[in-house]
Amino acid sequence: MRPVIRDGQAGQNGTQLPELTMAALESTQRTTTWSIQPGSMRLPLIIAHRGHRSAAPENTMSAFQGALAAGADGIELDVRLTRDSQLVVFHDRQLDRTSNGHGLVDHHTLADIRSLDVGSWFSHKFKGEAAPTLDQVFEALPHDYLINVEMKVVIKGMNLIAHKVAETIRRHQRWDSTLVASFNPIALFYLRRIEPRIGRGYIWSRYHPFPIRSRWFAPIVKAQWYDPANDTYSPALHDKFQRKGSKVLAWDMDFGRDVERMASLRLEAMVTDDVTLMVGRKQELARRLD
After folding, report:
1. Do residues 98 and 59 lie in contact, with contact meaning Cβ atoms separated by under 8 Å?
2. Active site residue 91
3. Taking 60 as the threshold, does the pLDDT of residue 26 lie above it?
4. Does residue 208 have an active-site annotation?
5. What number is the average pLDDT over the span 218-223?
6. Which of 111, 127, 162, 213 is most open to solvent, judged by the fewest CB atoms within 10 Å of its CB?
7. 52, 91, 108, 238: which one is catalytic?
8. Max CA-CA distance within the chain?
9. Per-residue model confidence as pLDDT tens digits over 180-201
10. What's the pLDDT score for residue 117?
């Protein structure tokens, strides 16, 4: 049985989390699949970047549960391979910034990384928080809660990380509610070959070298979602993607955090570092439109 946060329940390390809204609890009141029609959303989905990272340490269970409680439509998280070829939820290549460990993630075993404190750097209230596995995230959140899994890989391990992510999604049967994204189109190509049922999101930045920034590898990825990095969104490209049957997940800052402008452009989803602010603005606009 999947654990669900009840009103006033404490997080993984005892930290008090916000009470869940009915919208967070009832799947009938929120979007539960990434397989939506392009341009069909009256208001964009709100995806919490690395969880509710303004209220809890990023990429932790406290941040993910906090995003659900705050009313985000889904979360984004990052996975990397450890030295013993296991998946761990961690953003940086180095352990130093968000843990009491040192060195490269892939130079340590999963057990090594799980023993680290990934919460104290944010606040003493999160002391003892451990880096979760993707399995643990899937088990802790509602089965139909939207999760965007970013594969963090450069060259080594492209095929392996795609296999590991696909195996985890298969194990949990999270076909509709999981999107797998990456800056690495080859890893996405491997994922498509391994398990074509899994939705794919192609991330790129206009600051990348040519031809990466021009998405030359798009034909082999066949992404259902395009995820422009910060300061990369283009209305013209968005329209092009929609006409070809794809959706866009863009940064809220590229719209000045103006939800009304996002809605006017029929943006399907936004990613944000300020869940509380954007949920509030979306709710306010929804009330005006009703």
Report:
1. yes
2. yes
3. no
4. no
5. 96
6. 111
7. 91
8. 53
9. 999 999 999 999 999 999 999 9
10. 98
Instruction: Name the token pair of 38.
Output: 């392009």
- For the domain made up of 49-289, the CATH class stated in words is alpha beta
**Residue 29: both structure tokens together:** 């009141």
**Predicted pLDDT of residue 25:** 42
Confidence of residue 211 (pLDDT cuts 50, 70, 90): confident
Q: Which residues contact 105 (CB under 8 A, 6 or more apart)?
A: 80, 81, 82, 88, 90, 92, 93, 94, 95, 113
Among the options 49, 52, 108, 238, which is catalytic? 49
SS (H, E, C) the chain: CCCCCCCCCECCCCCECCCCCHHHHCHHHCCCCCCCCCCCCCCCEEEEECCCCCCCCCCCHHHHHHHHHHCCCEEEEEEEECCCCCEEECCCCECCCCCCCCCEHHHCCHHHHHCCCCCCCCCHHHCCCCCCCHHHHHHHCCCCCEEEEEECCCCCCHHHHHHHHHHHHHHHCCCCCEEEEECCHHHHHHHHHHCCCCEEEEEECCCCCCCHHHCCCHHHHCCCEEEECCCCCCHHHHHHHHHCCCEEEEEHHHHCCCHHHHHHCCCCEEEECCHHHHHHHHHHHHHHHC
